[in-house]
Design a protein that fits this description.
This protein has a single domain, classed as TIM Barrel (Alpha-Beta Barrel), CATH 3.20.20. The two termini are 24 Å apart. The radius of gyration is 17 Å and the shape is globular. The longest helix is centred in the C-terminal third of the chain and has 20 residues. The chain has an eight-stranded parallel beta barrel, surrounded by seven helices. The protein has 254 residues and is an alpha/beta fold. 46% of the residues are buried. The chain is 45% helix and 15% strand.
Length: 254
């Protein structure tokens, strides 16, 4: 089975927030993405609400429940008490924990699982006791000791940070090296019983090599590149292109 595609709506929300207007509609474009075949929707509600607002969460939850009951809701963020309470209130299928400082423009590194194992253990238990799948953001070059610690937190999955891989868009040799690195890290995670997700700077051009390097990839979460393509191809057409890329096709270099 190809990896599931979760459409990250943060970039849509950021565009909406440039004006005090309700468009582009976060739920409207989420509906279009799901109708086109996306498997789920992702949001990252940061404390300053600079893109997804807390008020968006019940609307997305309702959209999935009423119109796409098999679709998954993935909420990602740093595990403050406020964030954990948002998760408990809006019942995502998956919670992805990221080690972000609130001032960061975007996620750009994984957890130090060794140093933060006990904190992550406690938070993971709380989330799993609520029935949520838990995934932890993971560096692309995490070693055996780091992944031993990740598994010891009780997480179900890790999400491999693919930013460095995405940055090789104009260097085929470097892209191949980064894909191999991600493949090795994915193998280490799978050996420890962890499922593997991936996200950051993924495109229709670089998805096929990534899928080849990680054959058992469970899910990709894509926001910026997908939203950028949607300006040209429309949301429905873009989702179809990304789904084709996850099957190894649509390698038009964009």
């Amino acid at each position: 089975m190809p990896a599931a595609l979760s459409v990250n709506l943060n970039a849509v929300a950021m565009l909406r927030n440039r004006r005090d207007l309700p468009w582009p509609s976060v739920t409207g474009l989420g509906r279009t993405a799901m109708a086109a075949g996306a498997h789920g929707l992702t949001v990252h509600p940061r404390p300053d609400q600079r893109h997804i607002r807390f008020s968006d969460l019940p609307n997305i939850r309702s959209l999935l429940d009423k119109e796409f009951p098999h679709g998954e809701f993935n909420i990602e963020g740093y595990p403050t008490e406020e964030f954990l309470s948002l998760c408990e209130a809006h019942r995502p299928d998956q919670v992805t924990l990221v080690p972000d400082d609130p001032s960061q423009p975007t996620s750009d590194h994984g957890w130090d699982f060794i140093a933060q194992k006990e904190i992550l253990k406690s938070v993971t238990k709380r989330l799993k006791d609520n029935g949520f799948r838990v995934s932890h953001f993971c560096d692309p070059d995490a070693d055996e000791r780091q992944l031993d610690a990740a598994a010891a937190t009780g997480a179900d999955r890790v999400e491999l940070y693919t930013g460095p891989y995405g940055a090789t868009f104009n260097d085929n040799s470097a892209q191949s090296d980064k894909a191999d690195q991600l493949g090795r890290t994915a193998d280490l995670a799978e050996e420890r019983g962890l499922g593997v997700n991936a996200g950051h700077d993924l495109t229709v051009a670089n998805l096929p090599p990534l899928v080849a390097a990680i054959p058992n990839l469970s899910e990709v979460s894509i926001g910026h590149g997908l939203t950028a393509d949607a300006l040209e191809y429309g949301m429905a057409g873009t989702v179809e292109r990304f789904l084709a890329a996850l099957k190894g096709g649509c390698t038009d270099g964009r």
